[in-house]
Design goal:
Blueprint: E1 3-6, E2 9-17, E3 20-25, H1 39-42, E4 46-51, H2 70-83, E5 89-94, H3 96-107, E6 112-118, H4 127-147, H5 157-161, H6 169-180, H7 186-189, E7 198-203, H8 207-219, E8 224-228, H9 235-238, H10 240-254
Helix pairs in contact: 2-3, 4-6
Length: 255
């Protein structure tokens, strides 16, 4: 995979296909390779860009924990698109990648042609709920620091697929504290302001994210909600054919 110097770090990415650009971001402790099942379906008509977030995969893992945050991630997305000469794209992702896609739209709405939010949520308006989420993120960081990458062996499919690609357990720990943990409710508050076509996908076995997906579908004007039968948290990996049909149909509606 090629890499680009963006915001002072080396970012690993993959850029393939033909047509209008689609940027897909991965979940926490996964890598951009999780989107491999989508490439054969998407690339004949669309330019598919995937990448490893800072602290993940082969992208650089800064030693300074202050270099990991929502704003850094959104800036990396913008910087990578700029490096590739992309001014406007379909922006999407799964889990953490979906949340960061919403955050990207909140910061750079003019760069977003459409949104694809998969097995994800918009964050929390309630401070107590956000604190509980953050406590779990910090526990994941401590586990990684104590056990190294072995802490990921019981994780979901997209994380297990990435086990041999991560360079740094410490980078993932920093990412848990700085990127997975959340500071405020700006993203969830921004949902009614979204005016681009939006596809929300969730697996019918992904219980924690069904209600958040339904909430986003209600708050985003004109959003389309698709539930993938037989899929858990990694709907694109668990049921790739059904996922690809839904995604291809949505992208086709943009043409």
């Amino acid at each position: 995979m090629p890499n680009a110097t963006v915001n002072g770090i080396e970012i690993d990415y993959e850029d393939g296909g033909h047509g209008a650009p689609v940027l897909l971001s991965h979940g926490y402790s996964a890598t951009g390779r999780m989107w491999a099942p989508q490439r054969p379906a998407i690339e004949p008509r669309w330019r598919l860009i995937t990448w490893d977030m800072r602290g993940h995969g082969h992208t650089e893992s800064p030693a300074d924990p202050a270099q990991y945050s929502e704003s850094h991630t959104v800036a990396d997305m913008r910087g990578l698109l700029g490096h590739l000469g992309v001014e406007r794209a379909v922006i999407g992702g799964l889990s953490l990648g979906g949340y960061m896609s919403l955050a990207f739209h909140h910061r750079y709405p003019e760069m977003v042609r459409a949104l694809v939010i998969c097995d994800s949520g918009p964050g929390y308006r309630n401070p107590e709920a956000r604190a509980a989420w953050n406590a779990r993120a910090h526990e994941r960081a401590r586990d990684l620091e104590a056990r190294g990458l072995d802490a990921l062996t019981s994780s979901s499919a997209e994380v297990r697929e990435a086990l041999g690609r991560h360079r740094s357990a410490q980078g993932l720990a920093h990412a848990a504290r700085g990127m997975l943990a959340q500071e405020a409710g700006a993203v969830i508050e921004s949902l009614p302001d979204i005016r681009v076509p939006t596809l929300i996908i969730v697996g019918d076995r992904d219980a924690p994210f069904i209600a958040p997906s339904e909430y986003m579908a209600k708050k985003i004007v004109g959003a389309r909600l698709e539930v993938i039968t037989g899929a858990g948290h990694c709907s694109n990996i668990d049921q790739p054919e059904a996922f690809n049909r839904v995604l291809s149909d949505f992208l086709g509606s943009l043409a």
